Amino acid sequence: MTAGRGRTGRPPLTEERKAEIRLEIARAAVGLFVTQGVAATTGEQIGEAAGVSARTVWRYFPSKESCVRPLLTAGIELLAAALRRWPPGRPLTEALDFDEDPATGDRLLAGPDGADVGALVRLTRTEPGLRAVWLRMHDEAEPAFARALADRAGLPPDDLRPAVQAAMFNAALRAAVEHHAWHTAGADPGAPADPATARARLATALREALTVAAAGLG
């Protein structure tokens, strides 16, 4: 076998290309879930919509519900990076005023496809399998937020304070995104979504949620 080539004789896929394929599969899965429901969607349909085989779908994801993870995790990773960069002493609510990551140009509040993410979060309300993926993603994100907040404050990783702050930030983030998706974004399903308006409304919901979290229980 030629060095640097896989079993098919083609060069192996780069990590960047693998990430692109995962995202293409995720967008295809969400589109099908929205139009026909999760139960009626098959791996073969997802693969066909993404331009890959069903075998490729299952190579990257263990279940059809898990196909949506790339659309959910992208925004979490961007927010964790924003937390690490945000200067200590300034309110975290202001960090969400960025429309784009100044280092990469990626949108902080929309993810790789804001419309798909909103539709996906709305589906988590009625689809238990997707709800489980959504909650698990937030559970996995909390340690990343804790590390980012510890780095920001110059605290050791095992300090309790950033762990508690991360839990509050995570809960506020999930509540704000769900509120935006279930109420604001779904107020007029027949109206075309304006990405700039949707981002502004989501940013407002996130700032409000973080303000409530910062105020504590009273």
TrEMBL record:
<keyword id="KW-0805">Transcription regulation</keyword>
<dbReference type="GO" id="GO:0000976">
    <property type="term" value="F:transcription cis-regulatory region binding"/>
</dbReference>
<feature type="domain" description="HTH tetR-type">
    <location>
        <begin position="19"/>
        <end position="79"/>
    </location>
</feature>
<feature type="DNA-binding region" description="H-T-H motif">
    <location>
        <begin position="42"/>
        <end position="61"/>
    </location>
</feature>
<keyword id="KW-0804">Transcription</keyword>
<dbReference type="InterPro" id="IPR050109">
    <property type="entry name" value="HTH-type_TetR-like_transc_reg"/>
</dbReference>
<dbReference type="InterPro" id="IPR009057">
    <property type="entry name" value="Homeodomain-like_sf"/>
</dbReference>
<dbReference type="Pfam" id="PF17754">
    <property type="entry name" value="TetR_C_14"/>
</dbReference>
<dbReference type="InterPro" id="IPR001647">
    <property type="entry name" value="HTH_TetR"/>
</dbReference>
<dbReference type="InterPro" id="IPR041347">
    <property type="entry name" value="MftR_C"/>
</dbReference>
<protein>
    <recommendedName>
        <fullName>HTH tetR-type domain-containing protein</fullName>
    </recommendedName>
</protein>
<dbReference type="GO" id="GO:0003700">
    <property type="term" value="F:DNA-binding transcription factor activity"/>
</dbReference>
<dbReference type="Pfam" id="PF00440">
    <property type="entry name" value="TetR_N"/>
</dbReference>
<keyword id="KW-0238">DNA-binding</keyword>
